[in-house]
Design a protein that fits this description.
- The complex is a heterodimer of chains A (396) and B (114).
- Chain A is 11% helix and 38% strand.
- With 396 residues, chain A is mainly beta.
- In chain A, strands 1, 2, 3, 4, 5, 6, 7, 15, 16, 20, 21, 22 and 23 form a 13-stranded mixed beta sheet that branches. In chain A, strands 12-13-14 form a 3-stranded antiparallel beta sheet.
- In chain A, strand 5 and strand 6 form a beta hairpin.
- In chain A, helix 3 packs antiparallel against helix 4 (181-191).
- Chain B is mainly beta and 114 residues long.
- Chain B has a single domain, classed as Elongation Factor Tu (Ef-tu), domain 3.
- Chain B has 1 helix and 9 strands, in the order ββββββαβββ.
- The chains are: A mainly beta (396), B mainly beta (114).
- Chains A and B meet through strand 1 of A and strand 4 and strand 5 of B.
- Strand 1 (2-14) of chain A pairs parallel with strand 5 of chain B, so a sheet runs across the interface.
């Protein structure tokens, strides 16, 4: 039996001029939590009229199936090759403006911007702060798409300075020079978490772009969701793959430290002892995490701010498990996206040659059309019990 | 009898021994196998250009060298089934035989560009 398909790739740009990419030799779009912003490249025989900062929309798929927008972003690089002659137009998602924007403001001569300078109030939630930062970096977003915990940050205001590194105040050390908008946002993404003790459910919030070019900040769990978005089955729609099951990075003891007031009592802190099949509670396999932006030790401690306790529990979800990682390559042209949950299995729902039959969380996605046809390569992270309470991630 | 006229030049005459010559047009299809199944994924990528291949006869060594100089040029190929000429790229010439009468035989290849 043969699955006969006609592949399609097209792209256009707007900005300094408007045009369509002609004679596309190959195209690729990449998304992932390990590459900060999405990226696409379009190879053509010669340089076209497209130029820096033009907005490029790339469409790929199988004719009659799912020819859809797979990337929207800004032109950043051109790469030339002599033989065979080709020009690769490299684009990055609009979130790249947050990578390129460095804070230069220091209105209070204290080394950068306080939350007050961003919001007009001393304290604020992560979504409000992230929106203010995206606005400064000229990254387009919809407020309703910027999610976060209800935690209010900033009671200890100097821990939340968006450093500019060139303060005129001679008493301030030149610290964190060149801190970018995305770097500042990622400081919140690292600590802004939800955890529900009753269900053992939770995760941290991540800022990323969808295939449609929309910026989201979304709860991405420490574990895959219970309900999968897509199912991939060996001998059916998996062309190639590789998986690893490991306990090398499994941990059962989580030590989180936060702000140190400098009064000799030490930083806010919390230690969480857990266990698993391989690591009993009498043993310690430690994962350490520290951030001065964590303002409380425990959830019961009065005041506002993230607690070391909540973050320790979320880290437990991420690292107290057998860690499953790997990738598959598929010819399917479904609307896949990062943060989705996929069920990867062999026929009958059993583990096959790849050794997995479980829900896995999509970490990276590479979509390509070239002389091999249309392919999507998906990298996964999984292990542990799936989470029944995580929201369905956005795709568009 | 056939002629090849490089773009902007004058016509060079030669003989195509097999007239009309072979023509080849290929649809490029990529075949991928799904391990463990009897299914193949066939992705239609695109169509290759039409290639005209034949055996040519040149009346002299000088004529052969003239054609060698024209390899790599764009031009117009005229032969029996294309009396009005067809736009081509002259891709290759490989001499295969020389007779005592200074007749030179060669394989030639043209790619249709229009």
């Amino acid at each position: 039996m043969a699955i006969l398909r006609r592949v399609s790739s097209s792209a256009s740009w707007t900005g300094g001029s408007t045009g369509t990419f002609s004679n596309i030799l190959s195209a690729r779009a990449s998304f992932g939590f390990d590459k900060r912003v999405s990226e696409a490249s379009i190879v053509t025989p010669t340089k076209l009229g497209v130029t820096y900062d033009d907005v490029v929309t790339l469409t790929m798929g199988v004719v009659g199936s799912n020819v859809i927008t797979r990337f929207v972003g800004l032109v950043r690089d051109f790469r030339y090759s002599p033989n065979p002659r080709g020009v690769e137009t490299v684009c990055r998602g609009r979130l790249t403006r947050a990578v390129e924007y460095e804070n230069w403001e220091d209105p209070q001569l204290y080394g950068g911007l306080f939350i007050y300078d961003l919001l007009g109030t001393q304290t604020g939630t992560a979504p409000a702060i992230v929106q203010a930062v995206l606005t400064r970096a000229n990254v387009p977003y919809t407020a309703a798409n910027i999610h976060g915990s209800s935690t209010v940050y900033g009671d200890i205001d100097d821990a939340f300075i968006w450093h500019n590194g060139n303060s005129d105040n001679p008493l301030i050390d030149l610290q964190e020079a060149g801190e970018t908008a995305l770097g500042y946002i990622e400081r919140y993404d690292a600590i802004d978490a939800d955890f529900t003790p009753a269900t053992g459910s939770g995760g941290r919030y991540r800022t990323f772009e969808t295939l449609g070019g929309t910026v989201y900040r979304y709860l991405v769990g420490g574990r895959p969701r219970v309900a999968q978005d897509f199912t991939f089955t060996e001998t059916v729609d998996i062309l190639d793959g590789n998986f690893e099951r490991s306990i090398s990075d499994t941990r059962n003891y989580f030590v989180v430290t936060g702000y140190d007031p400098g009064d000799g009592t030490g930083p806010e802190s919390f230690a969480l002892q857990e266990s698993n099949t391989f690591q009993p509670s009498s043993s310690k396999h430690t994962y350490r995490f520290s951030s001065p932006m964590i303002e409380r030790s425990t959830e019961a401690q009065p005041g506002t701010g993230m607690s070391c306790e909540r973050l320790a529990n979320v880290l437990g979800l991420e690292f107290n498990r057998e860690i499953v990682s790997g990738w598959i390559e598929t010819h399917r042209d479904d609307d896949l996206g990062i943060a989705q949950t996929h069920l990867v299995q062999a026929p009958g729902g059993l583990p096959g040659r790849l050794g997995v039959a479980e829900k896995l969380w999509v970490q990276t996605l590479d979509i390509s059309v070239d002389d091999s046809g249309f392919t999507q390569r998906v990298s996964y992270l999984g292990g542990g019990l799936p989470d029944a309470n995580l929201p369905v991630p956005p795709t568009r | 009898m056939a002629t090849y006229t490089p773009s902007g030049g004058s016509a060079y005459a030669f003989s195509l021994l097999v007239d009309p010559p072979t023509r080849q047009t290929a649809q490029t299809v990529n075949e991928r196998l799904i391990p463990g199944s009897n299914t193949a994924v066939l992705d239609v990528i695109g169509k290759a250009v039409t290639k005209i291949r034949g055996a040519a006869k040149f009346a002299s060594y000088a004529s052969l060298k003239t054609f060698e100089g024209a390899v790599g040029t764009n031009g117009s190929l005229v032969y029996s089934e294309e009396p009005a000429g067809v736009a081509v790229l002259f891709v290759s010439l490989e001499r295969t035989r020389v007779t005592p009468q200074d007749i030179h035989l060669a394989n030639v290849e043209f790619w249709v560009t229009s």
